[in-house]
Design brief:
Helix content is 48%, strand content 7%. It has 20 helices and six strands. Strand 2, helix 1 and strand 3 form a beta-alpha-beta unit. It is globular.
Length: 448
C-alpha cells in the first residue's frame, strides 16, 4: 500500500494487547478496501486479532428509511463476509465521538484505523474521539483513487487545476488490490451476531420514504451493477450519458456513496475491459477528476454547504442581484411536492422522489431553478441541500454538496454574461434542455 494513503491522527505508542480496530464508516465493503487491508497488515505484524466496528447514528443529516435500509442491508452482507475471514464485527449505536472511544477502551484495542471523509460531521467525530483514546490512530483514504491530501494541499480552483495533478499521480495509485486474507488471530470473545431488525427500530428517522427497489444494496449487487454497465452501456457512455430519456449512465453512484463499491475497482475494470476510448476517457473524468474535485472542495472549504463557501466573484454578483424581481417564488413544500409551473423541473423532482436518483444532467437544471425561484441564495442552498439529502440515495455526499455549490454559487466555474437574479452565475433554461434531449418524453415518463 502507498504510504501517502495513510494519515496519522494520533502517533501515540500502544501498550495494549487487544485487537486492531477498523472503524468503518464511508467505505462499507470488505473487498478493495485499503483501510481494511492496512488494518489487517498491522494486526498480523502485531500478532493480534482484527475487528471492524460500525457506529450507527440514530439521526444523520436528512437521512430517511430509504437510506438507512439500503445501508443496513449492505452492512449485513459485510458482517457475514467478515465472519468467513475470521474478523470480528461490532455494531455500535449512538454518537461515534462517544461510542468509538468507549469500545476502544473497553477492549484495550492496540490501534484504531478509520477511513477518510471530508464532511464536517465526520471530521468532528474523529476530532472528538481522538481526545478520549491513547493509542495509535490512523486515517486511510480508501475512497479516492488518488488520495485527497496527496492530490493537493489546498482548495483547487476547478477541474482544470486539479486534472494535471490527478493525471500525474494516477499511474502511481491505480494499482490492483491484494486479497483480504483469512485472519490468523482469533478474538478471545467472538461477538454475538447482530440483531439488525432491532438496530433498525432504534433509529430516529426524519422522514419515511419507500425503498428504491431498483437498486439492490450490498457489495455483491454493486459488483453485478458494475459488470452490467461495462458489458452493456459503457460503449455508448460518452454519447448517451447526458440524455435523461436513455439509460446511458453507469448508475453506480449509490454504491460509490455508501462505499459498497470502490471507485478504483470501477476504473480498473473499465480500462481493462474497454481500453482507451472516448467513453472510458469520459468516465474517468467523472469518476476520478470530478469526483475527487468534490472531495477536495469539501475537505479544504469549511463552508462547502453555505453561501460563504462560494468564490468571491460569485458572492459579489449574487449580492448585487438580491433585490431583483423573481417571477416565481416557491416554498419548500411546493418544491418538495413538485408543484412549480415548470413541468420539466417537476418531472426531475418526481424522478428523485420516486427513484432515489435524479439524472445527473438534470441535477444542474434542478438546482439552478431553485436559485431562480427563491428569495435569496441562502434559501436556495438550504432547500436544494435538504431535498438532495432527503431523497437522493447518494445524498449527504461531497458530490452533491459540490454540485449544488456549482449550480447556485459558481464553484469551479467562471463568470458568464450577467442577467437578473443569477448575476454572472451560469444560467440554464428549459429551451436549452430542449436542444439537448427530448424534454416531452422525459416529462411524460415522470409526470404527476
Amino acid at each position: 500500500m502507498k504510504q501517502r494513503r495513510i494519515h496519522v491522527i494520533n502517533a501515540a505508542r500502544s501498550a495494549n494487547t487487544g485487537p486492531v480496530v477498523y472503524w468503518m464508516s464511508r467505505d462499507q465493503r470488505i473487498h478493495d478496501n485499503w483501510a481494511l487491508l492496512f488494518a489487517q497488515k498491522l494486526a498480523i505484524e502485531q500478532k493480534v486479532p482484527l475487528t471492524v466496528i460500525f457506529c450507527l447514528v440514530p439521526e444523520f443529516l436528512s437521512a430517511t428509511t430509504r437510506h438507512y435500509s439500503f445501508m443496513i442491508k449492505g452492512l449485513r452482507e459485510v458482517e457475514a463476509a467478515l465472519v468467513k475471514k475470521n474478523i470480528g464485527f461490532s455494531l455500535l449505536i449512538g454518537s461515534p465521538a462517544k461510542e468509538v472511544p468507549r469500545f476502544i477502551n473497553k477492549h484495550r484495542a492496540h490501534t484504531l484505523i478509520a477511513d477518510f471523509d471530508p464532511l464536517h460531521i465526520k471530521k468532528d467525530w474523529k476530532d472528538e474521539a481522538v481526545h478520549h483514546i491513547a493509542i495509535p490512530f490512523f486515517e486511510v483514504d480508501a475512497h479516492n483513487i488518488v488520495p485527497c491530501r496527496a492530490a493537493s494541499l489546498k482548495q483547487e480552483y476547478g477541474a482544470y487545476t486539479l486534472r494535471p495533478k490527478i493525471n500525474r499521480l494516477l499511474p502511481e495509485f491505480l494499482d490492483d488490490f491484494p486479497p483480504l486474507k483469512k485472519h490468523p488471530f482469533t478474538l478471545s470473545a467472538p461477538g454475538i451476531r447482530i440483531d439488525w431488525e432491532r438496530a433498525f427500530r432504534s433509529l430516529n428517522f426524519k422522514g419515511s420514504l419507500g425503498e428504491a427497489h431498483w437498486f439492490i444494496p450490498g457489495e455483491k449487487a454493486a459488483q453485478n451493477a458494475l459488470n452490467a454497465f461495462v458489458n452493456s452501456r459503457l460503449q455508448n457512455y460518452n454519447d448517451q450519458r447526458n440524455d435523461p430519456t436513455i439509460d446511458g449512465q453507469s448508475n453506480l453512484s449509490p454504491y460509490l456513496h455508501f462505499g459498497q463499491l470502490s471507485a478504483q475497482r470501477v476504473a480498473l475494470e473499465v480500462t481493462r475491459q474497454a481500453g482507451k476510448t472516448e467513453s472510458t476517457t469520459a468516465l474517468i473524468e467523472e469518476l476520478v477528476v470530478r469526483r475527487e474535485l468534490s472531495d477536495n472542495f469539501c475537505f479544504y472549504n469549511p463552508n462547502y454547504d453555505r453561501f460563504a463557501g462560494f468564490p468571491a466573484w460569485a458572492r459579489k454578483t449574487l449580492d448585487a442581484h438580491r433585490t431583483d424581481r423573481r417571477e416565481y417564488i416557491y416554498s419548500l413544500k411546493e418544491f418538495e411536492n413538485a408543484a412549480t409551473h415548470d413541468y420539466l423541473w417537476n418531472a426531475a423532482q418526481i424522478e428523485m422522489t420516486e427513484k432515489g436518483k435524479m439524472h445527473g444532467y438534470l441535477r444542474m437544471y434542478w438546482a439552478k431553478k431553485i436559485l431562480e425561484w427563491t428569495e435569496t441564495p441562502e434559501d436556495a442552498m438550504e432547500i436544494a441541500t435538504y431535498l438532495n439529502d432527503k431523497y437522493e440515495l447518494d445524498g449527504r455526499d461531497p458530490n452533491g454538496y459540490t454540485g449544488i455549490a456549482w449550480s447556485i454559487g459558481g464553484v469551479h466555474d467562471r463568470a458568464w454574461r450577467e442577467r437578473p437574479v443569477f448575476g454572472k452565475i451560469r444560467y440554464m433554461s428549459y429551451n436549452g434542455c430542449k436542444s439537448k434531449f427530448n424534454v416531452k418524453a422525459y416529462i411524460e415518463k415522470y409526470k404527476q
